[in-house]
């Protein structure tokens, strides 16, 4: 177990983010000095890992490219096993603003929830997107709001903070392929709770989205199917909020 400087760690899954990771880490050091930062290097072919180390982050090198779900779960496992109470997750492409991480922390410590999600759509006019992506995200949001019994406006957001019980749960059960919407449904079935706060998403510092126009449609249909399949599975009481809270 490493020596922690705080009770919170920032987890940044990164794949070929050499062009953006340095500026992101610089912002984090500026707005949250002294916080621990871990970059999960998901088999990058560029200098992502080297640049991250040069800019003060610890790097968790995965043996191969696991995809976003595998990289995020590896980060959650690291955070739990190293005794952190909270983990902030943000993307390595610069879209999530480190200046707003304190808002996530404040909302987590003020509310009785296990996860706080930064939403692009909680306030009108805050984010521009293609019409097909807009419709897909809002369709998923409506469906998730129904099955989670909680209002969801941004089910694909990767800007979030979670507490230790949820770290334990997600380090053992986490969807692998574009996991954010499925993870929300999964945690709610096991008795965990979440809320959203407004967040500003920026343009990518470098690179472009891996999901194109038709990829968005495929992604939405795939997530709908995964959510329906998950609904048919029995709840695993070993990882319920009540049981986990009694163990840690």
Question: What would you note in describing this structure?
Answer:
- The protein is an alpha/beta fold and 248 residues long.
- The protein has a single domain (8-245), classed as Spore Coat Polysaccharide Biosynthesis Protein SpsA, Chain A, CATH 3.90.550.10.
- It is 44% helix and 14% strand.
- It has 9 helices and 7 strands.
- It has helices spanning 18-31, 48-54, 67-81, 101-110, 131-148, 164-172, 180-189, 213-232, 241-245, and strands at 8-14, 36-41, 58-61, 86-89, 115-119, 160-163, 194-198.
- A 7-stranded mixed beta sheet has the order 3-2-1-4-6-5-7, sandwiched between helices.
- α5 runs parallel beside α8.
- It is globular and about 45 Å long.
- The mean pLDDT is 91.
Could you give a quick summary of the protein structure above?
By secondary structure, the protein is α/β, with parallel strands linked by helices. It is built from nine helices and seven strands.
